[in-house]
Amino acid sequence: MADAILRLEGLRKAYGALKVTDDVTLDVRPGELHAIIGPNGAGKTTLIHQVSGLAASDSGRILFDSADVTRLTMAQRVHRGLARSFQITSILPGFSALENVALAVQARSGSSFRLFGDASRERGLNEEAMSYLAQVGLGHRAIIPSGQLSHGEKRGLELAIALATRPMLLLLDEPLAGTGHEESERVVETLRGLKGRYTIVLIEHDMNAVFSLADRVSVLVYGRVIATGRPDEVRANPEVRAAYLGEEAA
Amino acid sequence: MNEIATPSPAALDVPRAPALRRYGVPVLVFAAFALAPIAAAQGAEGYILSLLTRVMIFAIAAMSLDLILGYGALVSFGHAAFLGIGAYAVGILASHGIESALVQLLAALGASALFALVTGAISMRTKGVYFIMITLAFGQMLYFLATSLSAYGGDDGLTLPSRSLLFGANLLKGDHAFYYAVLGCLLGCYLLCRSVVASRFGRVLRGAKENAVRMQAIGFAPYRFQLGAYVLAGTLCGLAGFLLANQTEFVSPAYMTWQRSGELIVVVVLGGLASLHGAIIGAAAFLLLEEVLSGYTEHWKMIFGPLLVLVVLYARGGILGMMGGRHG
Amino acid sequence: MSTTLLIIQTLNGLQFGIILFLIAAGLTLVFGVMDFINLAHGVQYMVGAYLAAAFTAMTGNFGLGLLLALPTALAFGLVLEVLIFRHLYDRDHLDQVLATFGVILFLNQAVKFVWGAAPLFVPVPEILSGSIEIAPGLLYPVYRLAIIAAGLGVAALLYGLVNHTRAGMLVRAGATNAPMVSALGVDIRRLFMLVFGFGAMLAGFAGAMVAPILSVEPGMGDNLLILAFVVIVIGGIGSVRGAFIAALAVGLVDTLGRSFASNILRLFLDSGAASQTGRALAPMLIYILMAAILFFRPSGLFPVRR
Fold first, then answer.
1. Higher model confidence: residue A182 or residue C181?
2. Which residue spans traverse the membrane (chain B) (predicted)?
3. Residue at A86 is within a domain
């Protein structure tokens, strides 16, 4: 399939003797929502770290938008349109929600080596940041220090920051992690709204969310992809049932 | 309009602390320094002016450190090196007969910036404790270099023929003239740092302090900004060194001992991290405390040491924190 | 550059390195296990020297003085730990730097207050005085050889303790992953105290050993502290083996550099310039070494934490 926007070829990462990802090969097509599921310790987060550039890969290649980005830093990959969110909320707690997002806008709009002028009053940055906050339903919480937001709101902010980098592809690492029932429904709705407008790689434990949102699903077990396909195909795959879904039922 | 109301553009402006809180303390501080010479004329004028001048010079050095320590969380333990560079730029040039303030100042700032760029580029590769140690090591390196410069006094230091000449005249000779020149420098530094901290650049620096990984994940390379701040801080401290040499008309390796670097950290934390004017208050508190305590006993450090321990253990936020005004 | 001088300076460098190791060993463990940056470690060395001087003067016997100084140095370290340091373990590095800096200010002044600003001199013990001929025509002071031997003995002992005892195993595990050790149900506070007291005693031992060959004076620990930091940063924080190798390297480079930098430069420069540059360069050598090592290996030669 030549039209993959993201292609992983034989990615490996080991910590000492522990192989966390092992020969991961995967295509993500433009516009799809591609979920990656797998039991705990399957290497999902490590894979996201490798793709986003937070962790270096031991071997293999990452092709994004038909360019090899394997050796680029995280920041360089962001500038090419590869954004991510974090499983464990990663925000700037002392900054307002608005400033968290405005910084992401600032990152791609002109030079940040400006020593004069109050950045927090730059209307251009703030207005654009506001629009992303509104997308995740946080418009009314913009000036709250982000450390004081509720957990669910922080998950939303995490998403708004990723959107503000104007990505082609979003890597979302368990956006529902730790959210309550109501909050998680809100995040799922937000994701549904993003689907189709962005290519999304979604790691999630919540199977209901995964099977209702995903166009395709890949199953990662012990660092290897054991199946990729439409949700119903994957659900029916005997190997997946044995290795993963069966285990959950037991 | 659907249920997510889009706020009006005016609401986008971040609310500010009341003007009094924001500007009150710094304005008071600078007003006090501006008026102090008048009050000093009633007493031991020369002594008071020289003490306050020293306070302001240390305030510049401490403020420059606050820029990287308070806003960048870069614990540099070699900041006194820049005091030394600035001072030796004056001393070395003066000993070759170059006494123009302009030339000396340019040399002081240039050499400081260069040293900061080179050592910063190496130091920033390391993190945490390693960063503290490597900045300390660079400071020591320079200290030992200064002690071995026998042509420029070595251990004993170097006495200047006079203060730097402005436009070929000895305009800085008088205590008052020099006092106000230093005050001008302090004010300039303060306004510059204020602006930098609030600017796009400063926002990235502050963001990297809170969460460097997050900054990378939105496309920033914190290294460049931290290095930039390090160079700026070093350069400003070089200015303090230039002034220090001029005040004392003497240059010595003692300006850049590691204890001096430690004192600068003490001053910044004592005043209140990440507030800029806190560095001024800290410098005043430190030097005045030293002056008062050493008036009582030559063993004043036996009082000051435990005091410092107590401040760290029990009084977080420094003097500004104790005054209750959160700032920023 | 005579061979005799080279041998003597190599031995001096070795002896200096051994002393550095004694100080750095405790520092690197405290650092590695507790993530605690203790600037006051250098004053432990100074206190050890003062205690040795005081007890030697009191008893008239250096051996006895040393014997009394060691437990006192240990007790002193433990008192500091209980009073101050243990409240700093979960603070950030900046707080640790500040508080221990305060301790330095106090102790440097306190010894001046108690014993005066003038240096104290401790005589070399009778049986270890004089020099012996280690090679034909090559005399070397017995006492310095004794320092080298004692230091190597302590290094071997430490190696055994760290690698072959349960406490040592915990210390190593703690340096790699402290939360895990604590999760295993080990009383981490007691372990910390043990490591801290032991480190303080080693530094005190180093101070006591050099008391007869250096002048015992206020602030004598400050420069050694910096050098010990250079050592543990080069060696890799938490690694005793790294500290040993780095300590010897720093001791040798510093001592030999100071003696021979000018001579070596004379190969490239004219005599006057060489001696000028050599004198300026020599004291900077170890810092250049450290910067170079950190440039290529930002976590030192033997990084412990992964």
1. A182
2. 23-41, 76-95, 101-122, 129-152, 177-202, 264-289, 301-323
3. no
